[in-house]
Amino acid sequence: xxxxxxxxxxxxxxxxxxxxxxxxxxxxxxxxxxxxxxxxxxxxxxxxxxxxxxxxxxxxxxxxxxxxxxxxxxxxxxxxxxxxxxxxxxxxxxxxxxxxxxxxxxxxxxxxxxxxxxxxxxxxxxxxxxxxxxxxxxxxxxxxxxxxxxxxxxxxxxxxxxxxxxxxxxxxxxxxxxxxxxxxxxxxxxxxxxxxxxxxxxxxxxxxxxxx
Length: 212
Description:
It is a single chain. By secondary structure, the chain is an alpha/beta fold. The chain is 38% helix and 18% strand. Strands 3-2-4-1-5-6 form a six-stranded mixed β-sheet, sandwiched between helices. Helix 4 crosses helix 5 and helix 6 crosses helix 7.
């Protein structure tokens, strides 16, 4: 089977990120810093030979993806499947506001209870099913290619756990894999049972604006 290279990229900083608010499915755009991060990420990825670009349809992810698409002349394919977890009543709230007003939903989220359905939202299991289902469709359609998928911290965490074989049907709680704004998780896919993790949360391309 040909080797497929996969890049999972978190969007740049959004206005909501800057204020410490849960983004969920909200239409928050990139901040000025987020746009700088997106451009530097596009510059780095433009050297990787990317042949397909997919993105969540939420503005903060799509704006980030379009920076690379413009450089390569490739159209972004958008999908709701790569959206962040729908956080329901927590959307737009800060951590402190969520803890005070919706403690049950808040603590289930931060403790990664995979089965808990947030009020008017979804569970991590729901997120896992829709994101990984779409992921394998993309990998099947682009075998042997180099694919960039722009998404969100929660969706990337659970796609990464899935690819690493770190989440099963009986899993009740998971660790959290941090992906910074415009961090990149890199994989080589040789088949469902032959996956190599090359890098997690790679932010080397952002050193000019992060300083480390």
